[in-house]
Amino acid sequence: MKTIGFIGLGVMGAPMAANLLRKGYTVTIYNRTPGKAEELVSLGARAADSPMEAARSADVLITMISNDQAVEEVYYGEKGVLAGIKPGAAVIDCSTVSPALSRRLAGDIRDKYAQFLDAPVTGSKPAAIDGTLLFMVGGDKKTLEENRDIFETMGKQIVYLGGSGAGSIAKLAHNTIVGINAAGLIEGLAIAAKGGIDASAFLQIVQAGGAASKQADLKGRKIIDHDFSVQFSLALMLKDLKLSSVLTDTIGVSTPMLEAAKSLFQLGQNAGYGELDLSALAQVYEEWIGMRISELQPGELEGHSGAADRRKQARLPLNIPVMLSIYQWLQEGSFSGQSAEGVLRDVSEEGLQIASTLPLAVDMFVIIHLPPDSGLPPMTGRIIRIDKEDDMFHYGCLLSGLPLFQRLQLKEYLDKHLSE
């Protein structure tokens, strides 16, 4: 049988290597972080001291590493893969990395008279354990066929996609859908929870209806049970969405849903959930709705306010000076604009309340300029309510077009202002 080198013993790599050992392959393992090799050594693996050593005797070298930077370190470091790979070997990179890096690796490994396949996977941790992963393969098709037995030990489906980099492109496109689906599932669960719907009952509807998805099957119960043990981490999801964003910029594809999902997972990362499962994004939504997405206890449905009867949210007293820019349409191709001083009086879930002496009308749009120390760009608000007190007009403004990361920045600024 072929001798195998395996580098990267994380959530996915360790069970993949274990399946190769159980099949009877001779496997030499290496992991950048010490302490992850013991269980595999007990199954018969030999531990190497460097990527170079793991590669030196391998007929087939498999890598499963977290990101581009780590892959570059493993392959191009002083004792890296390229220093040890032998002529005629096959290198299979199952990491999710940029297509540009996959193509560079393919060229540099060919210069060592070896072959390279980019073969990222889908299926998450359960499929890695069960040996039911799907491989998306780019590179030389003959090399794939020569090593199909290796792939079939770790997975149940191998899809050949074309030349070097094709596997990486497919994985980023795939994970774009995963991120969007996961965010959509969580958002729907948050809507149902805030409206008083039992979470398990609503999940049944999702799984049986047009909203059914693999994410609903994999993550629905985890969200309800607050089980954020890692199948695929939030940090890795964000990393993949960022890589996909770079790819789509390069090839000229507009991706508004990708950018929205990326912003959401960035909020999750900023909130400290990066090392938890990607379903931990639900905790961001739980903060927004002020409750857990979970099973309702008996009696909780009785008297639940629901969306139509929701109580007015408590407002936070503020007194922050702002500038307002108001633009009015005069005729075709012509606008009239003016500026006015105002005060940010308070904020709620719905938006901001601005006070000013300038009379305005409902449904007008104003540009709100916060003080420079906020670090925030001008925000667009639509006036939805007007109250007059003495000589001041109090305008309730809905914010529009404000990216999620800027909403978080606004919240941090207001919290800081209140604490001073």
From TrEMBL:
* Xref: Gene3D superfamilies: N-(1-d-carboxylethyl)-l-norvaline Dehydrogenase, domain 2, NAD(P)-binding Rossmann-like Domain
Q: What InterPro entries is this protein classified in?
A: 3-OH-isobutyrate_DH-rel_CS (IPR002204), 6-PGluconate_DH-like_C_sf (IPR008927), 6PGD_dom2 (IPR013328), 6PGDH_NADP-bd (IPR006115), HIBADH-like_NADP-bd (IPR029154), NAD(P)-bd_dom_sf (IPR036291), PilZ_domain (IPR009875)
> PROSITE patterns, per this entry?
3_HYDROXYISOBUT_DH (PS00895)
Which SUPFAM superfamilies does the entry link to? 6-phosphogluconate dehydrogenase C-terminal domain-like (SSF48179), NAD(P)-binding Rossmann-fold domains (SSF51735), PilZ domain-like (SSF141371)
All residue ranges annotated as the 6-phosphogluconate dehydrogenase NADP-binding domain in the record? 3-162
GO terms under biological process = organic acid catabolic process
Looking at the record, the residues that make up the 3-hydroxyisobutyrate dehydrogenase-like NAD-binding domain are: 165-285
Segments forming domain PilZ: 309-414
The family note in this entry says:
Belongs to the HIBADH-related family.
Q: Mind telling me what this protein is named? A: Tartronate semialdehyde reductase
